[in-house]
Design a protein that fits this description.
This is Alpha/beta hydrolase fold-3 domain-containing protein. It comes from Dreissena polymorpha. GO terms for molecular function: hydrolase activity. The protein is elongated and about 35 Å long. The longest helix is centred in the middle third of the chain and has 16 residues. The protein is an all-alpha fold. Helices cover about 30% and strands about 0% of the residues. The chain has one helix and no strands.
Length: about 55
């Protein structure tokens, strides 16, 4: 088992939403996770990885 926090994000997608809506959503989520990672079970020194499906 790898100690990590996994966050599944619903973000705005094209063609309904124009660029850069999805990028703005991703930035917001990363900022939120960084600000709240201790309450999510992560250490204050934890790094945040981002992946796209």
């Amino acid at each position: 088992m790898v100690p990590c926090i996994l966050v599944d994000v619903e973000y705005r997608r094209s063609p309904e939403h124009k660029f850069p809506a999805s990028n703005e959503d991703a930035k917001s989520v990363v900022a939120w996770v960084a600000a709240n990672k201790a309450s999510l079970g992560g250490a204050s020194s934890s790094k945040i990885g981002v992946s796209r499906r």
